[in-house]
From TrEMBL:
TM ranges: none
Keywords associated with the record: DNA-binding, Sigma factor, Transcription, Transcription regulation
Protein name (database record): RNA polymerase sigma factor
Pfam family, one: Sigma70_r2
NCBIfam families in the record: PRK09645.1 (NF007227), sigma70-ECF (TIGR02937)
InterPro entries (alphabetical): RNA_pol_sigma-70-like, RNA_pol_sigma-70_dom, RNA_pol_sigma70_ECF_CS, RNA_pol_sigma70_r2, RNA_pol_sigma70_r4, RNA_pol_sigma_r2, RNA_pol_sigma_r3/r4-like, WH-like_DNA-bd_sf
UniProt-listed CDD domains: Sigma70_r4
Superkingdom of the source species: Bacteria
Family listed: Belongs to the sigma-70 factor family. ECF subfamily.
Domain RNA polymerase sigma-70 region span(s) in chain numbering: 18-84, 115-163
Amino acid sequence: MREDLAVADELMRALYAEHAGPLLAHVLRLVAGDRQRAEDVVQETLIRAWKNAENLDPAARSLRPWLVTVARRIVIDHHRSRQARPQEVDPAPLEAVAAEDEIDKALRLMTLADALDDLTPAHRAVLVETYFEGRTVSEAAERLGVPSGTVRSRVFYALRSMKLALEERGVTS
């Protein structure tokens, strides 16, 4: 077993010494001059050679065609994998944009909706007409078919009930 590792290590040293430079030059052309990527491809190629050391016989033929083929396939595989998934976007520009926290807003709206559900239908109706629809007391009274004084009274008691319902839910003003 130790002898096999020694042979594999010797083979790797010989492969690196003889083929790493020309292989790097070839891969640099394949990856459009991206040196870091080219170095990664050469490293991966040599790792694959090391893993297949028992199948490689440097005395039988030159290993450079095999190494070039493996490197080319690694580049192609990498290109295909990048095409298969969406391009990554740098989040830095998005972090600079001021945005409201949508989760907090949604939670506030859910809490308000729950508090509105706790109101009587008459109190809920006057709040919807006056606050959410933006109608005056007279317009709300006309739409609801009740006197203006009744609308004012219901708004007062509805707001008081809403305040209590929100305090029960832990919302403070």
